Each structure stands twice: as structure tokens, then as C-alpha cells.
Amino acid sequence: MSDLAARLRALPAFPEDLPVLDLETLPEDPTELFAAWLEEAIASGARQPHAMTFQTALPDGTPVGRTLILKDLDEHGFQVSTRSTSRKGRQLAENPRAAMLFFWRESGRQVHVTGEVVALGEDVSQRDWLARPTSDGQPNPEWQVYALQPTEIEFTQARHDRLHTRVAYRREDGRWIRCSDR
């Protein structure tokens, strides 16, 4: 083992008191659990609890990730925004599938969301643009709000023994199915 490997192994992991993911009390709709975990992260004072790694793909399938901010979650899906002409905007136009990975270190929780991405209407996009701190009050025709419509959501609750608790949901025939194959 190299010196770096030994130093990395010795780094502290999670706080002593970790929440427990009770598999017996899960909601039918995983967005309810996501919203509860996000609210807990906000209430805990975690910095940027709405930040996530947003992953798209190059034409050859190579994944590309960057950190974005969740703008909203509603019946349209998990919302982010960017210029339609940006690298990620072009990637979404070519392949409208993406993934999000939220990680709340303070609670040892992460949520992985995958699905199809759709562009929302001009009214939603311009409202978002005008609310940005850098907006000059003028419309931006390149600004676009996208909604990731989840087809799979996986929740992971860390444990000190590294036998983390995981539960996945998959959307089938318009309803959520809890998966035990992960």
C-alpha cells in the first residue's frame, strides 16, 4: 500500500451519529423521500444542499459530469438551467438522457437519479433567467430550464461498517416499483 493509500484510508468518513434508512417505512413515490432528505439537509445547515453532479454523455457515450444546482422539483421533474448553446445544452439536444448525484456528507446520504430530460417552456426559462443575480433584466433567448424526468432513483444511507443501506425505485408503466436487485 502506498503512503497516499494509507493516508486516504485513515481519513475520517462520516459523523458518529448517522440516520438509519428504514426499509419498512418507505413512501410509494421516491420523490417524497428525496424531498424529505433535501429538507433535512437544508435544515441541518449543510452548504449548498441543492448542489449535485449532473452527468450527460458525449456522442461516443463518454460520460461528462459537472456540478449544478437543483432549481426546482415538481410534476415536470428535477429542474436545472443552462444556456441551450452550452456544452451540456448541446449534449442534451443530442442525447436527452442524464443523471444527477446528490451527496450530503453530513448525513452520509446520497441519491442517484437517472432519466429523460425535457426542455421546459420559454416562460419558465425566462422567469429563471430574470431571477439570477447576474441578470440585467433583459430576456435571454439562449437560457433554458430543463427537467430530468426520473426513470430510476436510488437512495443510499451510509453505515460505519460500510454495509450501506440502499433502495432503488424504477418507473414502470407509469408507477414506481421498488427494486431489490441492486
Automatic annotation (TrEMBL):
Keyword Transmembrane helix: no
Ranges of residues in domain Pyridoxamine 5'-phosphate oxidase N-terminal: 38-156
A Pfam family of this chain: PNPOx_N
Enzyme category, top tier: oxidoreductase
Keywords: Flavoprotein, FMN, Oxidoreductase
Cofactor: FMN
SUPFAM superfamilies named among the record's database cross-references: FMN-binding split barrel (SSF50475)
Superkingdom: Bacteria
Entry EC number(s): 1.4.3.5
A GO molecular-function annotation: pyridoxamine phosphate oxidase activity
The protein's name: Pyridoxamine 5'-phosphate oxidase
Organism: Brachybacterium sacelli
Record lineage: Bacteria, Bacillati, Actinomycetota, Actinomycetes, Micrococcales
